[in-house]
Amino acid sequence: MVDLGGPDADRVVAVSRLADPRAAWGAEDFRRDARAEPRHALLLVSDGAVDLAAAELARIEAWDEPDGMWMCFWVVPGREADAGAVLWDAVLEHCGRHGVAGLRTSVASDRTGTLTLLTEAGFREVERMQRVVLTMSARPEPPVPPDGVVLRSLASDPPLLDQILVLDAETIPDIPGEPGVQVQIPGRAWWEEHLGNGVFDPRTVVLALTGGRAVSYTVLRRYAGRPEAADVEYTATARGWRGRGLAALVKRACHAAAWDAGVREVRAWNDLANAAMRAVNARLGYVRGPDVLQLRAEVVGKNAAPPVRPVAGTDRAS
Length: 318
Ligand SMILES: CC(C)(COP(=O)(O)OP(=O)(O)OC[C@H]1O[C@@H](n2cnc3c(N)ncnc32)[C@H](O)[C@@H]1OP(=O)(O)O)[C@@H](O)C(=O)NCCC(=O)NCCS
What we know:
Aminopeptidase, 13 strands, alpha+beta
């Protein structure tokens, strides 16, 4: 049942694409996640001939919830009631074995079958995000910064990481999100891990500096499964410098750098309450898709007697 790599990771990738054409994970992404989290699992449901559902259980990065895990849950549309239910039972079983108390996941609003299944399983919506995409068909013209502002990438100036850490500490508490829940401020080790394992490409970490001080930056997250797609991990401007076009400036510079790094599609998720970030993305030509719901569920005690539902011809493969 639990597999950390090899051919099964490729089968999970295939199911993820059938369930959600926007999925960008590749087998190497799963293997990297497994190295970072001893409780990591890839679960796959098959009827013996066809793979029908898959899940990844990975560490939670954004919140300080060591008893929780992040879940990706993919079901081939129309197979939620049988394969999806078997998969959910397997998730609960894994959580029980590893003392996992809660799960977080996110699901696009157009994946209605999966949303229904997860809601019935006890997930509740804690945040709703706008999903936008910028598709680039030609290299975007790099912006000319205004007088007194200099653009740099982390590739050209690695010590700027020190200043990113300062910007993160100042700006992350300002991100609108789940009420009463603070997103973690990542430390140097987290940044170095993500720069070292290819999730962040230093060429697409772009900063705006004034007088040698970083006042705005943006960073993209890459995936092994679809190197031509990248997600905006974060964009921030120091409080005293907002409203001067700096976020738009670093993002435009990042788009050109991303093109040079092989990216053709830049995606972003923003809390519906984040008016400033949504305005920046709209101005830059990002196109809105279905919203993304952030979900949470407590799973303690739900797995005391794992009820593996009998489904004719459906089995879990490992
Ligand atoms: C979001 C953020 C990066 C914007 O930085 P910025 O440098 O001020 O952005 P810009 O000056 O380029 O553009 C701001 C845009 O938001 C608009 N805006 C600001 N506040 C707004 C509000 N309350 N309602 C509507 N629009 C608003 C501005 O009018 C401007 O749009 P325009 O250029 O079309 O006029 C900054 O506010 C920030 O760091 N927030 C905290 C971190 C965060 O939430 N990051 C995004 C999550 S990934």
